[in-house]
Every structure is written in structure tokens, then in C-alpha cells.
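Notebook entry, structure prediction.
Reason for the run: the old model in the group folder had no record of what sequence produced it. Starting over properly, with the input documented here first.
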Amino acid sequence: MKPATNQSSVSGWTVCENFLEVIFGKENVKDVWVTGFDDITANPYWFGMQGLDALKTRLSDVNEADLYFTAGLLETNADRRTLGAVVAQPLLYADDIGTKVDPALWTEMFLKGFPEPTFRIETSPGNETWLWKLEGDTRSPEHNTGLALIRAYMIERGLTDALHDSTRYLRLPWGHNSKPHYRTDKGRSPAVGYTDCSPEKSATLDQIGRVLIGRDDWRNADVPLSAQTSGAMAAAGGGSRPRDADMDDAMVQMAAVIGLEPKQRVKGVVDAICPNFAEHGARAETGFSFIGSGGECYCHHASCSELKTPDFLRLIRGRYEEEVASLNKAGQNSVGLPPTAKRFEFKVLSDANPLTSSAAKKIAEQQKKIAPSAFERGALALLQEGQLLVDLKGAIWLSYNGRLHSVSNKDRAILQICAQLGHNLTGSGASNLFEYLINSVSPNEERVEVSFRQADTTQSDGKPTVYVNLMNNGQAIRIDEGGWSALPLKDAPIAMAERLGGLPMPMPANSTSGRDFFDMLEQHIPLAPFSKTSDAKDLGVRQRAVLLCTLTAALYRPGTVPHLMISGQQGSGKTTLAKRLTDLTDPDAAAVSATLPSEADKIFNIVNNRLNLVADNASGVSKAKSDVLCAIASGSAHAARKLYTDADRAIFQAKATVIFTSVLTDIVRLPDLAQRTLQFDCAPISRKHRLSERSLNEKWKQDYPALLGALYDTLARGLSHLSKVTSECESGALETPRLSDAAIIAEAVARGMGWPVGLCMAALVANEQSEAHRLLEENPVALRLRAFLEKQPNQSWEGTVSELNTALGDLPAFNLPSWDQNRLPFSGQFQRLWPGIEEAWGISRVQRRTSKKRLVGLTLKAP
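New structure, fully documented this time:
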């Protein structure tokens, strides 16, 4: 639902009333504190009142007004908006989504299981407020305490802005935003309204707390200090934690270097000039203090009331780097101050020699030894047993006890390890730990490839080896032509990490029944009979060839991987088949998606570091998505500017199979994607043979380990045939489809299963040709081109592409499908026909250039 801009179809007051009823209940709408005004720049009435009826008397036009309500419910007959008057808090909100808050952070939270919001309201162009209706007793002290803790963690994770209390004004889903910088050139204010309205959705604090904080006893978690503003810390007397700031601390020393004159006032507190002093006005030097060894700080001055510790530290680090750059430019950096703030902090924390700058000398005189803070002690404990690695994209990892944990992404497992070592860090201490680890990496550190679920290597004798990360207590599987074996992940010669959302796979088991992989798989997936074992066009052969190609290309991936289109009528087991294929290769908590995003960066983000993804009940693939899916099949990377930065890049790398399920057979309509997509047609399942999902899952769970073992046995036997199959394809003895790398390993595995030589490859070629014929028979340009050439002398024609476009457009449309000539440029539609149209219909193309024209010659060869 887009933001409403007029009152032609619905009353704005009705929208607002319905909105408040969902959140507060119909009986409480009269007590909701609201306010509104025509223009925010002309004496806005912020004091407010209770109930929409009172607000209606103040506004002439609800469509042209700034409309607000208070997040908490106030007591009946309240005379002002105060915390003491709040009697219920039925609402959780996140503000500034899209501007100050990166929506990608929320995408990750939703994948983890964070409930979807009840309402999304666009409050200004590209900026939204999201609101969750909360269930349970929203008036109890326990609810209020839990809600405050959740808000603090949302602030710490950057999921919302830092202004959170129950009396805050939020915009109602109607009216306009009259702030001057949002107005158009003609002075129009943008409308405010829903982008999504789902009143049936609600959430509990327990649902949210477990996902957000990451523990079942989330109510016992410490409040993160970094989430508190200066105003909140000042109100709490400088924070509730023990004060342990010292003149030896790295940020205090940096403050000294840039002239903020830090001084130890009392134990644990270091006063200094505020780094934001330019905004103070009178008495700029007062009000600022360091209170924590990790740089925690706050300022009493009113101009700093909304700033948090990271805000102050960013100012200090920025001024430091400006100062050093100026010294270096003038040739006056005689004491060798590091050029970056991070390197300065690292030097202070790791170098026993005191700094010698004039400001730092005063500090050095007071210290004999730099005592490591809590996060330093934690980092040193980690590095005693662990090792830092840098992957090919520059991300930093901690290898500990054979398992990799992301430092760059601030993996909470690192904090858990730290706690097990006796260093329990929260809030800013936790943040400083990650900063310390990042700064500990040398700029010249050798980079290594980090894999997740799968990796393949080549042994010294040139034979391939495949590794599968079970993501199950540090266990992995090694597969080569001699068979498969289990080993601890720490003993694998490659770096493999667990992926967020990746599900554990069971330890594979050796089959005791003597059945091969497909015999076992048929107990869970309906397959056509394997009736004509030497006929590549036999349905049973083609189905098994497609499944072999999909599964083996996920485990051994030297080149392009296939996408898979599973089609069939309702109730034919399409989604179950797709889930089973992901279970056998790369199970994930979000394996099945209802839709694919339109933007390339969002698609890459979803499939990043995964082997496959299911797009369930798909109805079509746009040209933009088609191009991205082609790139993902080939293993491309997508780089974009990180949000809220000027130069940093976010790099997403993906090579993954997207498995489509659909009742339609023609959702893939562009040749480039079609040549990278295998087709699997599901036969209908009669009602008497259908089983409940519970029964299917129980049976699958029972056979799952044996199926994995059989699949790995099958792949191992196939690897022994790989070299010979590759040679036959390179010499031309075997014809390969477009997906040659995937087809080669599938053919090798099929031979290991006893299939006739070339049968699997021929089945995959037939699958590709069948799909090419389907695309051409549905393509209005291809059909018109063939009809046009059939009427030409010698079935040949030469001219420019523009002339061909005109000729095809003038062609009588008898028995030809309609053609929207404006849908895509003709030249693009024309170019995409090759090479498929030549292989299927024999239409050849020769291009040449004269002094004035570029000509194309077309010939329809006799069948």
C-alpha cells in the first residue's frame, strides 16, 4: 500500500482511528495523546491533547496536516504528556528505516526469525517508521522492563534511532510532512501513509527478545551502555556500571594528542574538553567525561544530550586523523604518530614504549605500565589459542579450536568463547573487543579463501577432493575417488565457516540395504520409472539426469551451476522435492522464499555464501532478474557502496542454484537463463497416495543419514570417471550442453552408477534442446522471423536490423502470437535468439559492414 495522497476514497480520520484501535484497542482510543498542525514551521502545537475528536477541532484539513500520536497510552484525563502518566506500552517501534538505519540490517533480522511489523509508515521520502503491536499484559512492570531492554539492544545494533521512550511522538499514517527540506520545488509537502498495513500481525516480547538478544533468558541480559545517550547517562549519574576510566586508556591519550586536555578528577573518571565543544556555545570546555576504559563517555551539555559514546569517539578519531595529516604535510610529525586512529589505538594497547608527543609526555609521566582493560584481556586470551585470518574480500575471521567466527560481522559466538575464557564482555566492551581484533591484523596479512558449506580442491596428483561442512559441532566430510570419510573441521586443509542460517546436517551413514542412491530417493520423491535405460528421451532417464546434475553440481563446482525449474499441477510434490534437494546439499533456515527481490544487491545478499535457494510458487522472471540469475549461476560478485558511507564497498559473491517451483512451465522466457536452467516435470499425485507433511518429514528424518551416505558414495565413484569424461568432451567425442561443467560431473557420476556411456549427457542435451524449442515456439520475434524467411527468395534476406524490424512489424499476423514492439528494444530481442534459433530451426546469421551500413544476412536452411 503506497502512501495516501488524497481523501477521494477514504477519510483520513477513519484511517487514523482504525490504526489506533489496532494498537491500543477501541476502548482506549479516546485516551491516546495526539497532536497536529498545518505547518511545522509556523508555531506548531506540540503540547497535544487526548483523543482524535479533540484534534479534529484544531485542524482544517486532515490531508494537509502533520499528525502525531504518543507511543505509550496515557491515563484517562491526563493533562500533559509525561512518563508518569503512561499506563500501558502496547507498541514497539523502529524509526528512520532507510535513512539513518540500513534496511539490510532488518532483512538479516527477519531471516533470523524477528517478527514482521504490523505497520510500515513512510514518514518522508525514503524514510519509514515500523511498528509492532505487542501481545500480553502491556501494563505490567515486567513488560515495561523487558520492552526497555529490547529498545536498548535495538539501538546498540543500529536497528533504530537512539530516541526511545514511551512518550515519544510518532507520525500517524496520514497527512503530510511539512518540514522544509522535504518540500518539492513547487512547495508541496510529501504525503505520509502506509507502505504496508498488516493489522493481523502482532508479536510477543519473548519472540523478539530471543531473536534480538540471542538467548532464552534474554530478560537477564545486561543493558548495553553504548545504547544510552548522554542525556540518559547523565540522568543515571554517568551510567550504572562501575567507572574505570584512566589516563592510560587509548582514547584518553588520543584526546590529549588533539588538545582536549584530559585530567583525572576522581578514580574512574577523566574530565576533558568535549570533542563536540563547537556546538556548546558559552563555557565550551565544561561537561564532558570519560567513564570507561573502553572509551565510554558522556557530556552534560544540552547540545550533546542525544549523542552516544560512538558519536563522541568518531569526533575524536576524526580530529586525530586531521591533526596527523596536517603534521605529516608540514613535515612536523617528528614523534611518528600513526596516520590513522585505529593504528594509534593499537599502538597504545600493544606497545610498551610511551608516546613522546608533548601532550602525551604528560600522560607518560604518570604511567609506568599500560594496564590492559577488560576487552584487551579478552582479546589476548582469544589470540593465545586462536588465529586471525583475512579472506579474499578483506573480511576478518577468528579461527578458534578449528572453527571460524566472523570478526568483521561481530559474531556473538566470539563473545561466548571470551566468556568461557573468563572475560564476559557486554556493551562497549564487546564493541571494543572486535575493534581490537580488527586492528591486530597486519595490512600485509596473506589472504585465504573461506568456504562455507562446500569446497573442492585438487590434490598433488591432479585428482579432485570435495569437502562438505556439516555445520554440526565442527564436523566435515571428505570425498575423493576412494570414498568418503568424516573428519574434524580443524583437520581440513581449507578454511570453512558456519553460515548464519545454515542448518546442521547429520553424520552420513553407510547404507546396509545395498540399494543405490536413486532406489532410496524414490521412497521420498516420486520419479518416473526407469523403463528405457538406453533412451535419452525417456522421462525416467531425463528426471534422474536432471537430479544428478543439480545435486552433484552443488557438491563439486568447478564452473557454472544450473538453476532448476520444477513444474507441475497443485499437489504434485514440487515444494517437497525442492526442500529435499536443499536438505541433501545445503539446508538453511530460510531455504524456501516466497519471492525474489527485484534489486540485484538484494538477490546477491540472499544467496550470498549459499549453494541453493528455493523460490516457491514463482509466476514469472523479469529481464532484470534473469540477468542477475545468469550471473549467480556463473559465480559472479556484486559490489555496491555501503549504505551511510562515502567510499566503503559491500561485496556480495554468489554461485548458487535457484530452484523454482511453479504450476506454470513457461516462467523462464529469456534464452540466456533458459540455457542455464534444467526442467523437471512432476507427475500428479493421486489423493489416495498423498501423505501428511508430518509423515513425510518423519520418514525423511529416518532415512536422511543413509541418503547422505549414498549420495557421497555416488559422487566418490563418479570422481574416478571424471578425467575420462572430461577428455571425451574436450576431444568432441561427447556433445555437451551449455552447462558443460555441471553436465560433465553428472555424466561421470552416472557412469559410476552403471549407466551406459553418454546416456546422462545425452539426456541433459535433450533437456536443453526441448527447452530451446519451447522458448522459440512462444517467442513472437522468432516465429515472425521464420515466417518472414519462408517467404523470401531462396529463404534468404539481407539488410539492416532496423529494416528487419520494419519488415517483421508489417508481416500479416495470421496465426502468429501478438507482439508488443515497445516492450523491449528490437535489437536486444533479435540478438538473444542466437545460438538457440540456429541449433533448433537452422536459421543462420552473417554480419558484415559496408561504408555506410551494418548489414545482417539471414538464411533458413532446409530441414
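Summary: The longest strand covers residues 91-97.
The old model has been moved to the deprecated folder.
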